């Protein structure tokens, strides 16, 4: 098991953002957390990457207890997150953003980095065209790609993607999900958080449904997509 | 793009040998500046060497504060506190409670400022944004009030008889005389190299200028390193920086400590030249002028903040003719700058990019549809 979350509780002040959630991600999988706004998806992601403190429960990564590990030590272990929305360093160029991705890598000066850069450029040809452009001057979709590319430059074992399709045009959403599938097939485990349930369920091996801070359902992507209750609540009736 | 920006680009585009020659000429010019007595630039109502020294301390302070405010993005409104700690460390060790030579006290002054920077930063840098500004504002005042009320530090009377930097009397350097219209070498009005005396302030300026050059070199080395990149990431998006593996707290503390060191160093220089310090030398207004220098010049760009420091340090001295009005005029000038050029006279490239990005985002949010 690559990631094991056990009985996790996280608070914002006195408000319980997530309550006693338990889930796991197996190596090689794409696992999705779907849920409405405010269900606790982003909080879960931030807790796994260490940006939110844990009130109760534990997070295990690769057999190691990382519940209270500082966030900046987690990329070294192989956890890399592409944050929600525009999480790029807007004042830096595309290239500088990608270089920031390698910040925690012990082998950041080796030729392996160059290979990874080529791989990212292959996945996102747009980034190559714009490598000397300021990240902030790009469109939302391009910035999303950059955030994903930057996370990949850390060469993670587990890639955390927080709403990669948010605010994008339908055509672009399709493209982003294709890339997620491609990244996964190249061997990176992906934990995905999405509101776009239709696409996400289609692409993931397994999924969990989060409602007001609790996991209410789990299953394979296919099963959940076929479930009438899920269909009604998240898929707008038809896929 | 401003003229200043265009000028910078022009310099950057020159071939390397030309750049070096230009730099050397510029340095010679800077060192010779107080001797040239150039009309209009030279202050008519106060000793130009002294003014240049004051401007140099502003530049030094601005460079230090730029690390904190410009590079790491931490608003420090109590920077004068570190300046005071540097100056008082020199005063205490060399005059009040000891008789160390000035030069020996300087590293201790830097160390004292460093420690106070860490002590102030460690608990406060965990909070974000406005709180830090308030805490640092308090810090500056607490330092001053401690100086006023401490008997051991001689209270409001301050410390006098601070020794001067070690010098030697090697040779005389003549100055220029413009009184006949054209520049004439004036052998009767000379400066002794390198005598740190009372009347001739030019050697202090030379010392300060040399220190500035060293700090600039250090600044460049740090800014262009992994540390500089980490500061930049932290300033732009602290969470994203953490996700990349940047220990943001540690880097903020480092910026704070380095800034404090340079503040302490400036204070030590000031004490060595003034010979006398008192709590009145370290008022809140000074903190605000320091911040003004950084912001007016363009936080994050070392050339910008130097320009800002020159504006803040030099103009009030140059226009002493306006007597009481000069502060008013100066305030007005700062306000105009804030309105028409909020990013500073010479902002860093990245800030310009970030502002453009913000404007774009705003336009986007107002309904302009783009993919």
Automatic annotation (TrEMBL), chain A:
Coiled coil: none
Claim: Transport is one of the keywords in the record: yes
PROSITE patterns, per the entry: ABC_TRANSPORTER_1 (PS00211), ABC_TRANSPORTER_2 (PS50893)
GO molecular function: ATP binding; ATP hydrolysis activity; branched-chain amino acid transmembrane transporter activity
Start and end residues of each ABC transporter domain: 3-237
Keywords recorded for this protein, A-Z: Amino-acid transport, ATP-binding, Nucleotide-binding, Transport
Family: Belongs to the ABC transporter superfamily.
Protein name in UniProt: Amino acid ABC transporter ATPase
Species in which this protein is naturally found: Intrasporangium oryzae NRRL B-24470
């Amino acid at each position: 098991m690559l990631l094991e979350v056990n009985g996790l509780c996280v608070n914002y002040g006195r408000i319980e953002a997530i309550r006693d959630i338990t889930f796991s991600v197996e190596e090689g999988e794409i696992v999705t957390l779907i849920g409405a706004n405010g269900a606790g998806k982003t909080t879960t992601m931030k807790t796994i990457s260490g940006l939110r403190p844990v009130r109760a429960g534990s997070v295990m990564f690769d057999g190691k207890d990382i519940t209270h590990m500082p966030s900046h030590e987690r990329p070294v272990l192989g956890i890399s997150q592409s944050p929600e929305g525009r999480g790029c360093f807007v004042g830096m160029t595309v290239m500088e953003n990608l270089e920031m991705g390698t910040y925690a890598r012990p082998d950041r000066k080796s030729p392996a980095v160059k290979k990874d850069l080529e791989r990212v450029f292959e996945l996102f040809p747009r980034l190559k065209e714009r490598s000397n452009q300021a990240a902030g001057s790009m469109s939302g979709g391009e910035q999303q790609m950059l955030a994903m590319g930057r996370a990949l430059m850390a060469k993670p074992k587990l890639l955390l993607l927080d709403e990669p399709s948010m605010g994008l045009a339908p055509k672009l959403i399709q493209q982003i999900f294709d890339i997620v599938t491609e990244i996964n097939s190249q061997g990176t485990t992906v934990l995905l958080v999405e509101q776009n349930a239709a696409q996400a369920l289609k692409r993931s091996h397994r999924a969990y449904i989060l409602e007001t801070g609790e996991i209410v359902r789990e299953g394979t992507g296919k099963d959940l997509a076929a479930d009438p209750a899920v269909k009604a609540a998240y898929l707008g009736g038809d896929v | 793009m401003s003229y200043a920006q265009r000028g910078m680009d022009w310099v950057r585009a020159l071939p390397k040998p030309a750049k070096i020659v230009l730099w050397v000429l510029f340095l010679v010019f800077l060192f010779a500046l107080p001797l040239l007595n150039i009309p209009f630039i030279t202050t008519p109502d106060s000793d130009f060497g002294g003014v240049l020294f004051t401007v140099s301390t502003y530049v030094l302070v601005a460079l230090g504060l730029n690390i904190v405010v410009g590079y790491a993005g931490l608003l420090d409104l109590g920077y004068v506190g570190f300046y005071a700690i540097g100056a008082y460390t020199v005063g205490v060790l060399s005059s009040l409670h000891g008789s160390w030579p000035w030069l020996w006290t300087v590293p201790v002054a830097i160390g004292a400022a460093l420690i106070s920077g860490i002590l102030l930063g460690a608990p406060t840098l965990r909070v974000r944004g406005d709180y830090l500004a308030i805490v640092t504002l308090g810090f500056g005042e607490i330092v001053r009030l401690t100086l006023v009320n401490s008997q051991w530090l001689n209270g409001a009377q301050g410390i006098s008889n601070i020794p001067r930097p070690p010098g030697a009397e090697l040779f005389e350097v003549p100055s220029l005389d413009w009184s006949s219209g054209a520049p004439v070498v004036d052998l009767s009005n000379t400066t002794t190299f390198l005598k740190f005396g009372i009347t001739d302030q030019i050697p202090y300026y030379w010392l300060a200028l040399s220190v500035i050059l060293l700090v600039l070199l250090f600044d460049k080395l740090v800014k262009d390193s992994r540390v500089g990149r980490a500061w930049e990431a932290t300033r732009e998006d602290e969470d994203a920086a953490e996700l990349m593996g940047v220990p943001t707290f540690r880097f903020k503390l480092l910026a704070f400590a380095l800034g404090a060191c340079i503040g302490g160093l400036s204070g030590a220089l000031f004490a060595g030249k003034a010979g006398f310090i008192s709590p009145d030398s370290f008022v809140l207004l000074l903190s605000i002028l320091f911040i003004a220098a950084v912001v007016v010049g363009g936080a994050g760009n070392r050339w910008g903040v130097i320009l800002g420091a020159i504006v803040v340090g030099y103009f009030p001295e140059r226009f002493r003719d306006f007597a009481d009005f000069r502060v008013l005029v100066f305030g007005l000038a700062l306000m105009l700058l804030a309105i028409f050029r909020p990013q500073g006279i010479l902002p860093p490239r990245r800030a310009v990019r970030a502002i453009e990005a913000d404007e774009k985002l705003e336009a986007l949010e107002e309904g302009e549809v783009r993919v």
